[in-house]
Each structure stands twice: as C-alpha cells, then as structure tokens.
C-alpha cells in the first residue's frame, strides 16, 4: 500500500510529455473501483459527473461536505493516486475558507486537484495575478501538510462559446507562466481542440499540459505527438454510463416489465 506522499510523487511522475497519463473520470467509489480494475494508473473525478450523480448541477452546487464524503470513499476504495476536480475551491473569494477546504481534502488523502480560474458563481475569469495568488495559497497549504500536491491549474479561456481560440493564445501562455511561478504542477486547457494550438501551448510552458478529449479532436496517439502529458475525459464516462442505463430501463418499462 502506497502512502499519500508516495501516491502524490507517483502521480506527478505519470505526467510525461509525449506519453500522457489517461484519466477516465470517475464520480464515486464504485465507478473509481471499476476504472482502476481495468488498468488505470490513477483516478481523477469530474465535478460535473459527481454533482449529477447526486442530483445536483455543476458549479459548486453540490455541498462541499458531500463532495468531500464521496472523495473520502474513493480514496479509501483504491490504492492509487486520486485527483479531485475542485472547481474554484468552494470558497468564493475567502482565502481562509480556501485553505480550510484544501487542508480537509489533503487530510482525506488526495494527491491532486483541478483548480480553475473561472469565477464559479460570478462572471468571467479571475485576473491572472489574483488566480496566481490563489494557487500560491493552495501550494502553501499543501507544503504545510508535507504533501507534494499536484495542482492542475485549469484555464477556462477556451470554453467560451463565441470565442476564437487563436485570439486567446497569448493570454493562455501568460496564465501558464504565472500559474507555474505560483506553484502549479500542470496546466489544463479544456475546450482547446486544434492541433496547432495545442502544440503551441505544450511548447510554451514548462508545465505538463492536460487536454480534455472531445468529439472531433485528434486521436490519443496524435495528441501524444503534440506533447500532451495528460488526457482526461471529463463527463463523458458518466454520460455514456447513464445512456446505457436509460436504454436498458426504456426497454424494460416499454414492455411493461415482462
């Protein structure tokens, strides 16, 4: 059995440019166990999936206490690194609450966090310096606990429905540099799907780059060649699982149970 520090160290080592860590996102202990038993090297949660599985919408609407309870069960169920989708920290602009939440999650045994720069219950993104300071606060909390926490700094720049991704590249690279200086361990660019832009991001930051596999994107092999170090699937596993469940239930009840 690996301890928390060994898991965190191993988790960081799994992020290799050109040989990406594959994270088929879980939402509870059962899904995490199933994914792990299929050969996954680590488990990462999807906030969207975790919330939906408990009857909530995404966006920190699931109570932090319930999210922590679910996370605790995942960590207790598998002997592997566990990274939590932490959204914006469940803390608003309260830095003390952010620290409290991080310490509670570290005490549960997590080894990584996704931490986004979107203002979850507001509009737009945090300014670069503001978000970098929030990352530094998380790093300081983890250091205080003696855990080399993998802080996956997520930017939501490329999730704008009306945006042109090429126009946001300079801003994305600026954020990657600031987040790295603040103590981030990785840089997550969900919504970025163009090969040339993904390669540019990979070439422009010292941080291992995480992309989310979406319909229409290049294959995992091709993304590896671009320099990607981590590929996650977001809510797709949950959606696929629910589709199978609904199809089976539809057939059952359309026949009146016979």
Question: In summary, what is this structure?
Answer:
Helix content is 47%, strand content 11%. It has helices spanning 4-13, 29-37, 47-53, 64-77, 95-108, 128-145, 169-182, 195-204, 220-225, 236-254, and strands at 21-23, 43-44, 82-85, 112-116, 150-154, 186-188, 209-212, 230-232. The model has no long low-confidence stretch (mean pLDDT 96).
Explain what you see.
The protein is of the alpha/beta class and about 260 residues long. It has one domain: TIM Barrel (Alpha-Beta Barrel). It contains ten helices and eight strands. Strand 3, helix 5 and strand 4 form a beta-alpha-beta unit. The longest helix is centred in the C-terminal third of the chain and has 19 residues. The protein is globular.
Which secondary structure elements does this structure contain, and how are they paired or packed?
Blueprint: H1 4-13, E1 21-23, H2 29-37, E2 43-44, H3 47-53, H4 64-77, E3 82-85, H5 95-108, E4 112-116, H6 128-145, E5 150-154, H7 169-182, E6 186-188, H8 195-204, E7 209-212, H9 220-225, E8 230-232, H10 236-254
Parallel strand pairs: 1-8, 2-3, 3-4, 4-5, 5-6, 6-7, 7-8
Helix pairs in contact: 2-4, 4-5, 5-6, 6-7, 7-8
Main CATH class? Alpha Beta
CATH superfamily: Phosphoenolpyruvate-binding domains
Query: Nearest-angstrom radius of gyration?
Result: 18 Å
Question: Would you count the extended β strands for me?
Answer: 8
Query: What name does CATH use for the topology?
Result: TIM Barrel
Helix/strand class: alpha/beta
Task: Tell me which CATH architecture applies here.
Answer: Alpha-Beta Barrel
Shape: globular
Major sheet size, sense and barrel closure: 8 strands, parallel
How many separate domains make up the residues?
Answer: 1
What are the low-pLDDT stretches, counting only 5+ consecutive residues below 50?
none
Helix/strand order, N-terminal first: HEHEHHEHEHEHEHEHEH
Q: How much helicity do the residues have?
A: 40-55%
For the largest beta sheet, what order do the strands appear in spatially?
1-8-7-6-5-4-3-2
Q: Proportion of β residues?
A: 5-15%
Q: What is the terminal-to-terminal distance? A: 47 Å
Mean pLDDT across all amino acids: 96
Helical run tally:
10
